[in-house]
Amino acid sequence: MALPGFNLPGLGIRSTSTPQVTGTSAPDVEQPSRREELAPQSEWRFEAGFIQSYSVRLVSGHAELFGVELAQNQTHNLSGLKGAVFTWQGCELEVIGEAESEYSAQETEYATEWINLHGMLESARDGASEGPRVLVVGPDSTGKSSMVRSLAAWAVRQGRAPTVVHLDPREGLLAPPSSLTAVTIVSQMEVDGWGISPMTGPSLQPVRSPLVYHFPYATPSERPNAFKAIVTRSALTTLNKLEEDPLAKQSGIIIDTPGGLNDPKSNYDMIHHIISEFSINLVVALGSERLYNDLNRRYTSKSPEDAIAVLKLAKPGGAVERDNAYMKQLRARQVRQYFFGSKESLNPHSHSIPTNDLTIYRAKPASSDAALPSFGAEDEDDYDPAATSTSSSNTMYEKVAPSLAMTGALIAIKFCSSNSEEATIRDSAIMGYLYVADVDEARKKVRFLAPHPQRWGDRALVWGTWPEAAADLVR
Amino acid sequence: MSALSPRGSISGTSDVAVDFEDSLRDLSRNDRYEIGNLTSIAREYTEYAQAISRVLENHIKTTAPNKKLPALYVLDSIVKNVGTPYTVYLGRNLYSTFMEAYTLVDGMTRRAMDSLLKTWKEPVPGSMDHRPVFPPEIVRPIENALIKAKTAALQNQRQVQQPPYRSTPTPPQYNGQYAVPPTPNQHEQYPQYVYGNSQAAPPQQQWQPAMPPPTPQQQPPFLSLNPAARPMIDVSTLRADISALISRLQMAFAASPSDQGLITQLHALLKLKQVVDSGAVPDAALQEVRTKVTALAAVAPDPRRSPQPPVPTPQWQATPAMQQPAPYQPPASVSQAYQYPGSGTLPFAQPAASMLNHTAPPLLAPNALNGLQALLANGQKPSTPQMRTAVPALQNMPHTQLNNVQNNITAAPTSNTADLLAALSKSGVLSSLPSTTPQTAPAQNSTLPPPNTSSTTSLLASLQSILPPSQNSTPTTHAAQPAGTQSKAAIPISNSALKTFRPELVQALYDNQPNQCSTCGRRFLATEEGRAKKQRHLDWHFRTNQRLADPNASRGQHRQWFLDEVEWISIPEFDPSTASAADTTAAATVQKKRGAQDQYIRAPAGITRLTCTVCQEEMKSSYSEELQDWVFTNAVYYNGKPAHATCVEEMKKPWGGGGGGSLAAALSMTGQRQRSATPESSLGKRKAEGTLAGNGARLKTG
Question: What is the ipTM of this complex?
């Protein structure tokens, strides 16, 4: 199909005149490579495993992966990713390696919707001092995170600095799982990720400084009040940051949420909380007619000044469910990458600390079914998730002595002193994570793996129930 | 480009040519200095004239359309300032060089190229030589080809107009493809007869388009012409229809300004146009809009017979640049041999609005200035359609007054003629114009049914009901901007606007940023700033790769702690890959304010550990991102020996306030020397390093 605007003469010249030498040659020569021709507005969907290597190379034309344009003749490693390489103009791909599933798809109406949404946001940013604040909601596996990625990547490509707020503790953004992250994105996104948080030394990936909060549960509904408190706090900081940075303010906010947030039973309590705390002015409901209708009824009937636009987008055909096994692997990889790096290799530091010097708070499981049996100690917990805020804030953390059960756990270092109030501990941002490599109960010492050689001083440490212990990080 | 594979080839010829090519590639606008520079290169290396000529020809052929003109100016400058042998080499392929570029560039560039061609027929200005720049046998074929193309386009245009004038209200079918309502273009049947001739012609016949090009709003100037094949066609014809209808109503309104029904209709239509222009109309609704517009066109008043004072100007000259569907562009320069009729073989449609009026929102301006043009045509004899050169009154007007006109026009809410007139007289431009203009006799529309106001308003009301409300009233602009400009149509936030594909959004991400980094795919604008940014970006890639390749640099890296809330708020994110030195220092100064802890000394080669002379504890070196060197953080030289900055700070405290002690003076000296980054400190550093190097040697031997 001839698309208006695409058959510009200059384009053909550019794409044919500079055949380049491959910058990074194919990693495995033995791997079978094959060429795939993609028609305009079609995509190459793949589900790549963690173990096998899987990579694509753009031979000709233009293509992007969730908004991030692929450079021609560069090999992009996509193992462990489920996604789609989309092309507006048509392209030829070279695919190397095996994936669990891969096929080219033509039903890509979602891409039109997404880029139109991007166009709407761009229109709202143009000339405005305060950009759009978008909340993306919808059930799991409807492409929310992918859309947030695309919107952010497109905005950056047009010179904006959107702030992405990631509120899904199951999967980290620039941080391990159990993190709720806010980050302003000013530089081009990575094809296979969000970049890297600050590190020493040179880095291939763009460095971004995230602000990280800690929500040590798998879903917000386990501790709705704690979640809300953290949302309030992060909204406060984020909006403050936008006041400091006019470009970021103009570019607006995009908020990604976990699917568990849209619970009709609670009357979308949490969605409403996010909307009011961040002063959201556009809600995008992905893949759920009911959610859209409920939200639309609730927010568009308001008076015109504070009406919030609600948009309904369909679930993309390529959105697949990520099963538990996959998610577990993904989390383990995120934890590993936090300490050891991905493209850049990082050296974590080992700290051996006497148990007496440690103050560790245990985030108690919210309900009996959420308690992981491996942690044992909390059998008596019979917590009522519908408890009032006072009781929940009183019982969220308890001080524990380091025990063997802690081995393999991820511990958050809070930006507050170890004897702070519980609410302070709950709401504080974190300066980093520790991995419990070893607990020597006999010699009363705990060996931590820390990303940084510097000690963290007298700061509160929180041992969460989430994510699950990663046993194989250090041997 | 491929013909000139770099360095490795035969001789020095290629080096000169490659350098020349590199400089050419950087040339993206009409930069006198750069062009002069390239010309002097060409003058110095006349022995490589052939290679340079080939590079230049090649570059003109292959470069992006927006860079063709500057390259052609280089050619022009070389042949005029250096002359032979370049005239010979470049003359050989001049026809193909020129014509290939000509077919690809937009109307503005074409006009510039026409002027260029004209100068080639003449001798070099100020030269003793009376021969033309290029011999006539080279220039003439080009001229002939251009004339041929234009004639063909003209005939094409005439053919389109072949369906004879019909006085029926039913829309005639053009080419059997799509219906065009009886818009005023019907009375364009004889415009070519007055071409180049100073016959009197009713003004509105002059400023109505003969046939709106397919996509006046969206089409990039150098798109290949294939309107029927494109899905946009429906929208664009509809748009053209609406524009035509609007101007018709405006004429009617000019005739009878008190007609309330007309005002309502105009309002509604302008709104409709805005919505359609913004592309926010779903396909299904478009069809409906279409039928209604057609129906409306049938009953709308047609003022085509309204008597107007004759204007003794050639028809083409009165064609305003503002009317966007204008099929041909009037010349930009005053003296101009050609005009550009039709859009047959050479597409000429282009956003002319930007030429004339950047400040007024294009949505209002076309209509407003359209009316203005008519008025001006009535009052004064325009010599060219360019507004500023058109009317002596406007021409001689100070710039501020012109702005005033524009502002007033912009302020006119409905852009109808009455408001326009009011605006103009307010700005004092029209005082010299005959005041009778608005009172011209009403349209003689005996062939049409009288306008049924009530029915048309209801029609329009129903039209509006099927359209999504346009929430964003940002004026729509032409999507076909030259690459790099960021203007785009506002898209209202609504579910219905989600479905239609808008190529301009993709274009903004790809084609408008043609300057791509081959390593990471990042794109940059084709502007001066974009190139500078890309340069910095490439430098950054280079630096990063260099440092990654250094085995020393990559050991011992670790992740930093996350920022706390206060730092996160106050430290602005910046993109190191394109940051200029100023940005970096700005970011660095934010981090500098941290006191003693942030003092450092550079690690002498081979030394990773030192002992603090104050507390006797070990100090470890680490790699500083900022300095790109190994440093000991929290360290200063204390009496020539390394120590923790904090320890020294502690030690200084008791004496700090003291006025005279020699120890305190010595201490403060040491402190200052380390803290300032002025040349003086480099002296100090050298000295300190000397002592330390001795230390290191001792460490090694010992």
Answer: 0.86
Q: B30 with B125, same domain?
A: yes
Q: Would you call B494 an interface residue with chain A, using a CB distance cutoff of 8 Å?
A: yes
A343 is in an annotated binding site: no
Q: What residues of A are in contact with residue B543 (Cβ under 8 Å)?
A: 202
B590 lies within 8 A of chain A by CB: no
Residues of B in contact with A204 (CB under 8 A): 544, 548
Calculate the alpha carbon distances from A249 to A131, A133, A452, B576 in Å. 6, 10, 32, 20
Whether B427 maps to a domain, the answer reads no
Tell me whether residues A119 and B486 touch, CB distance under 8 A.
no
Q: Does A309 touch chain B (CB under 8 A)?
A: yes
Domain assignment of residue B645, given as a range:
596-652
Contact A4 B577 (CB under 8 A): no
The CATH architecture that domain A33-106 belongs to is Sandwich (2.60)
Of A6, A9, A113, the CB nearest to B104: A9
CATH class name, domain A109-313: alpha beta
CATH number of the domain residue B67 falls in: 1.25.40.90
The residue among B532, B535, B538, B530 whose CA lies nearest residue B512 is B530
Contacts of A280 (CB under 8 A, 6+ apart): A133, A134, A135, A255, A274, A308
Same domain? For B47 and B78 the reply is yes
Predicted confidence (pLDDT) per residue in A337-395, tens digit: 999 888 778 888 899 999 888 889 998 876 543 433 333 333 334 444 443 333 344 57
Return the domain boundaries, chain A. 33-106, 109-313, 340-373+384-463
- Suggest the residue from B223, B346, B498 to mutate for an interface test with chain A (most A CBs closer than 10 A): B498
CA distance B319 to B317: 5
Residues B39 and B110 in one domain: yes
* Pair B533, B637 in one domain: no
- CATH superfamily of this structure's domain A340-373+384-463: Pre-mRNA cleavage complex subunit Clp1, C-terminal domain (2.40.30.330)
**Cβ neighbours of residue A25 closer than 8 Å, sequence gap 6 or more:** A75
List, for residues A418-465, the tens digit of each pLDDT value: 888 888 999 999 999 999 998 998 899 999 999 988 888 888 999 988
pTM over 0.80: no
To the nearest whole Å, the CA of A19 is away from the closest chain B CA by 10
Residue A43 is labelled as binding a ligand: yes
Tell me the one-letter amino acid at A18.
Answer: T
Domain boundary among B271, B297, B323: B297
Q: Model confidence at B652, in pLDDT bands (50, 70, 90)? A: low
